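Design a sequence for this backbone.
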């Protein structure tokens, strides 16, 4: 440790080159151009995990509790994301979204969503079957909400653009630098990585699927919270059937389950996907249905919060798993909204892993969760709309880092 070279010392080390980590680095360098800053990631490219394995939606902010960090970040973040895309020639489309009620029992929840969306400043309209067919000719429903602000983008391209801007601003993006240990020293934190040892006066951990493990290296977060991975599987529509949806079609959320259920996304490249669903994953970074990590599985099973969560959502969780492994069951759910889907129209598509922060009580941490310690800031939970709002979240975290740097 005593032999660290000047080139291996930084004012700030950011762990995690996903959207949130890179946006934080960019915000810091924008405010403090002379900052010595490095972004570390164990992979060979940026945006490899959650940032590159999502549905590509620019969220409007319909679902979030008015006044919450999610709601505030999403509203500002959506505008910032579209401005960034335009200035960097990244393709995006403002498609709009339909939230469709297919059963009478969903109508009161649909009305409640409309009120929440308007409280969040959205131009929500309640429409009937005729207008549903005008906007999405293949979709059927009793009533729907139309939210014009929603859109789609390729977040892998956004991640790459963030990294390029960080480098242009004088920062370093160091891939292949997986963090194996963190040790406190009087003048900062020593990070032992796969490619060498670095010193950071302040450390900002935006580690996503590994957030709790990085936090445990500094003595934080490990007892009260655990990252429990949920795999989201997609069905991909064959090109001939991609025109079944023009934009985004979502169900009315089920309050008995904390995830969205079957929904449809027409991507910026014109491809159509259904999903993701949400089933327990047996590996934090395993994107195949049969991927298993003994360490990840044991970490989850040993955490009391997971057992409490499983008891609370046993029925809905079992149904989600059933639909994941039985294609006709998933197909039947899709046909609630698009009756014309044929079995030949869809095939198994890609998967993503959601880093869900879980408390010891079994409660899913719903909002952003950031913990601060001695010279370190941990982003323990950055749920959707983190991709949409990454620029705004980055500025928020950067302001906290500034406080550490002036101490």
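Sequence:
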């Amino acid at each position: 440790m005593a032999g660290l070279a000047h080139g291996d010392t930084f004012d700030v080390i950011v762990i995690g080159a996903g959207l949130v980590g890179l946006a934080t680095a960019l915000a810091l360098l924008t405010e403090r151009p002379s900052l010595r800053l490095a972004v570390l990631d164990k992979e060979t490219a940026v945006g490899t995990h959650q940032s590159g394995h999502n549905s590509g939606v620019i969220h409007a902010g319909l679902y979030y509790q008015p006044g919450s960090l999610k709601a505030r970040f999403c509203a500002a973040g959506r505008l910032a994301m579209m401005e960034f895309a335009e200035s960097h020639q990244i393709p995006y489309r403002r498609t709009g979204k339909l939230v469709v009620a297919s059963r009478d029992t969903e109508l009161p929840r649909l009305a409640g969503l409309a009120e929440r969306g308007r409280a969040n400043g959205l131009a929500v309209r309640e429409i009937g079957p005729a207008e549903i067919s005008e906007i999405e000719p293949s979709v059927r429903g009793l009533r729907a909400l139309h939210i014009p602000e929603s859109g789609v983008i390729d977040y892998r391209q956004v991640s790459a653009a963030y990294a390029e801007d960080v480098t242009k601003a004088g920062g370093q993006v160091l891939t292949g630098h997986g963090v194996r240990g963190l040790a406190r020293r009087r003048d900062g934190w020593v990070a032992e990585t796969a490619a060498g040892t670095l010193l950071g006066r302040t450390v900002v951990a935006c580690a996503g699927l590994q957030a709790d493990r990085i936090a445990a290296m500094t003595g934080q977060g490990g007892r009260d919270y655990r990252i429990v991975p949920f795999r989201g599987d997609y069905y991909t529509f064959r090109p001939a059937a991609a025109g079944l949806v023009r934009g985004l079609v979502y169900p009315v959320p089920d309050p008995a389950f904390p995830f969205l259920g079957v929904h449809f996304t027409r991507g910026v490249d014109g491809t159509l996907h259904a999903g993701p669903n949400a089933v327990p994953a047996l590996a934090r970074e395993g994107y195949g249905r049969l991927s298993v990590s003994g360490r990840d599985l044991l970490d989850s099973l040993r955490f009391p919060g997971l057992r409490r969560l499983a008891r609370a959502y046993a029925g809905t969780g079992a149904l989600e798993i059933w639909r994941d492994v039985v294609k006709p069951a998933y197909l039947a759910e899709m046909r609630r909204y698009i009756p014309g889907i044929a079995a030949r129209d869809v095939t198994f598509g890609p998967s993503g892993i959601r880093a869900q922060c879980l408390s010891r009580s079994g409660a899913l941490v719903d909002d952003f969760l950031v913990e601060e310690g001695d010279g370190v800031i941990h982003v323990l939970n950055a749920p959707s709309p983190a991709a949409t709002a990454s620029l705004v979240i980055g500025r928020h975290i950067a302001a906290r880092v500034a406080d550490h740097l002036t101490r």
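Residues 69-87 form the longest helix (19 residues).
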